[in-house]
Amino acid sequence: MDISFQQWGNSDSLEQILFIHGWGMNSGVWQDIVEHLTRENTQISSQQLIRSVDLPGYGHSVNYSIDELGGQYSSHTLAKSLEPLLAGKQTTVIAWSMGGLAAIELLANKGLNISQLILVSSTPRFVQAQDWPDAVEAKVFEAFSKSLMNDNHATLKHFLAIQALGSRTAREDIKTLQKQLFLRGEPDSDALKSGLNILLTEDKRAQLQGITDTPITLISGMKDTLVAHQGQKQLAEQKNIALISIPRAGHAPFISHPEEFKQIIQNII
């Protein structure tokens, strides 16, 4: 089965921008940002291809099974499912939250032509470790895993509420995220469970440190409760990594601060 995606711009272009969503969501979360880019930047709409992907188990890729991923749902196999979309094209990858782990895996594939990576509220390791204190405690994602077994919808909505924490427009942000949550169909339970395991267990710090020849930009909400801003500052000490901070934003800055986020993206690409 081919992975599902939405597409804008010039389908024949050899240059593209690929948007990757985070846990629980789907390609629709990027709709406003993509439509702004194609509307306001004629060069992008006429000369570039933009794709927003539904990761396996989400959106219109809900029937893309774990068996098709080789029996393992991980950032590595998610990246493998995305590789056909990058073949033969020079790609700017923009990835949010859990999607950033798959994006780091894509960069590790030297056969792909990735011109730059933009990580939005993402980190190579989401949970704390002895040498990585500026992250959330493992019990946060463990609690979501237990809750997921009882009620998918309630767990997803609770997760959205946490993503909006810290934002001065939290209530409106939650409504926007909830509206987009099931817009392209309900996510697969196994994908949700496996995705939480990715957030809980995976560590891509060594891989990220090994990527030194590709420009990487971190867009970080300083009020983010899932990705600590101090940890983002630590990552930005790497020479090819730049950090752009949005002071009053939480985990979904493109929802809480859309105009500021759009301007940042336009400046980078």
Protein topology:
Blueprint lengths: L4 E5 L5 E6 L10 H10 L1 H6 L1 E5 L21 H12 L3 E7 L2 H10 L4 E8 L17 H11 L3 H13 L5 H12 L7 H13 L3 H6 L5 E6 L7 H7 L5 E6 L6 H4 L1 H11 L1
Parallel strand pairs: 2-3, 2-4, 4-5, 5-6, 6-7
Antiparallel strand pairs: 1-3
Helix pairs in contact: 1-12, 3-4, 5-8, 6-7
Shape: globular
In DSSP terms, counting alpha (H) and pi (I) runs of 4 or more, how many helices?
Answer: 12
**How would you state the average pLDDT, rounded?**
90
Sketch the major β-sheet: 7 strands, mixed
- The order of strands across the largest sheet is 1-3-2-4-5-6-7
Report the sheet-strand fraction: 15-25%
> How many beta strands in the DSSP annotation?
7
Would you identify the regions where 5 or more consecutive residues have pLDDT less than 50? none
Q: How far apart, in Å, are the first and last alpha carbons? A: 31 Å
Radius of gyration equals 17 Å
CATH fold-level topology: Rossmann fold
CATH class: Alpha Beta
Helical coverage, percent range: 40-55%
CATH architecture level-2 label:
3-Layer(aba) Sandwich
User: Number of folding domains?
Assistant: 1
CATH superfamily: Alpha/Beta hydrolase fold, catalytic domain
**Would you list the SSEs in sequence order as H and E?**
EEHHEHEHEHHHHHEHEHH
Instruction: Give me the secondary-structure category.
Output: alpha/beta
